[in-house]
Amino acid sequence: MIRSIVIVPNTEYEAVPEGSPAPSGNGAGENASAVPFTLNRNLTQEGLETALAEGCSLWIDIVSPEVEEIHWLESWLQLSPTVVADLLREDRRPTLLVYPNYLFLSLFQPHSQSNTVVSKEIHCIIGENFYVTVRKADAAALEVAYDRVTQNPGSWQRGVAYFLYLTGQHIVDTYYPLLDRISNQLNELESKLLNDSDDKQAQKSVYRIKQHLIGLRQMIAPQREVLSNLIGEQRVSTNSDIRDLFRHLYERLLGIYDVIDSQRDLTNNVLEIIANQQSRKMGEAVNRLTIISLVFLPFTFFLGLFDSNFFTIGESTILPINGLVISIVITFLMIASIIVMRIFFRRRGWF
I want to staple 130 with a disulfide (CB 3.0 to 4.6 A). Which of 3, 58, 157, 303 is the partner? Predict the structure, then answer.
């Protein structure tokens, strides 16, 4: 589907006297001569070609493009085969390609899907008077920027480079909700771990969050380089205001990159808490087993002592003690040894 915004210079434009209220609407109202531009939307392919030939400014947004639409762009704008291949292919890195008549760059919007973070590509082609975006329907960050241009007449006068800035701005804005959600999840996991919750499930959640952060970092790092190179391009740097906007956008990406690094450190801290809890539980289990083995140690000693055959005498010796008394004495010694060990362990703080 091809959507378009065409900004037609108004040849009947009359300057508004100073102090008069600013005109409202899209320039196609009753007093069209009161604004310097007229806005047309969703022209046909032939109408778009005519508008560009007449010097109009265009924003063409192609949603879920068909192969025929990409080939139409190729023949109309004389696109490079490399650009066409990138438009038809997914899972590309953010990139910036500079050509004599246009710039081509790819930006990535993060999208949460089935406990994973995937990237949605938004391809941008910017020329002197045209701006083309190619994306899938679920890359919804562009919708707000597109509607903002149609509803704000002041943005039309800033040129197609401003459209690119709006695209980048709303793509960057989509990172903040994901980072906030990850930060809240890490804080909740840390609180649960301090309350001795199940560390196995928490460990799985932390590793999943860490994978999300790695994916976001892989999206941000190349986009940061793309924006850094874009600031030096002539189509952006000729206007100081637009250049400052892109510098601000670049600084925001740097801030997001720092937030991702800090959250990665927080995930490492949570993993250390989990490892310490596992070590503590393992130590407690070893202590219990050690105490149990010590409790049964006197049993083994007395039973082994009275069951040993180490006397070597010629005649049998009959002890002048009843066997029942001997059994009672042995049992008493076992119970007394358990009580003594229990008192000793408590005084030592082992039990």
Answer: 58
